[in-house]
UniProtKB/TrEMBL annotation:
Originating species: Phytomonospora endophytica
Protein name in UniProt: Branched-chain amino acid transport system ATP-binding protein
Cross-referenced InterPro entries: AAA+_ATPase, ABC_AA/LPS_Transport, ABC_transporter-like_ATP-bd, BCA_ABC_TP_C, P-loop_NTPase
Extent of the signal sequence: none
GO molecular function: ATP binding; ATP hydrolysis activity
Amino acid sequence: MTIPSTPDAVPRLEISGLGVAFGGLTVLDDVSFTVGRGETVALIGPNGAGKTTVFNAVCGLVRPHAGGVRINGRPAPASATRLPSAGVSRTLQGLGLFERMTVLENVLVPLSGTRGDHTAEARAILARLGLTALAERPAGALPYPERKRVALARALVTAPDLLLLDEPAGGLGAADIDALAGTVAEVAASGCSVLVVEHHVDFVMGVADRIVVLDFGRVIACGTPGEVRGDPAVEAAYLGLGAAS
Ligand SMILES: Nc1ncnc2c1ncn2[C@@H]1O[C@H](COP(=O)(O)OP(=O)(O)OP(=O)(O)O)[C@@H](O)[C@H]1O
């Protein structure tokens, strides 16, 4: 996918003054942060803090009443269907795989509207994620960790320059989380920017360059993992509430 090049100073993702309300409920209030090129930023916070709503605003699935989202310096697409052409891929908490389609067919879905045969690219991604032997299996027949990897492969096949991961470590064991952390590090090293929503604190501390902490729809802290870990407001709001360690 060819994305117009932008100066390095322009963030891949810039969220400024974002406000979202559902009916009378304010869910996001003046949320601002950036994700730079090749940077991995984690968005953490207690249940209901507004993390998924941030993702949905980036993807054009909810309309903010204040502020905005820019991707590579341009306003984010108003529709999720235009995200791939803006260089953005996303995984979903619910995975959203087509259960009866094979692993390979699932991974080819994002490229189905584009010209040419993309089988070689899809197989390369499958190989990178250790899924080659499962390529012809129906996605619905696989154990959960492999299904999660298929969802990640499907997000990577468009070669995004901004990858949004919604709870990628959820439901995985230690070995799969380690492998996932390695994949995220490789993706970021290739220049792709990553925004990850995740509850698993060790995973977040290991992969994130910076962490943004939301509580009741507001940013209460932003910094390196070391800075955030020691922040009393974060401990009170989140880390002290028995999150996975
Ligand atoms: N479509 C909607 N209509 C009404 N309220 C909503 C809607 N989507 C989310 N909310 C509410 O907005 C708030 C933030 O939800 P959101 O899913 O963004 O939080 P979250 O931080 O991702 O939580 P979790 O960690 O549990 O996934 C919650 O109070 C939720 O109930």
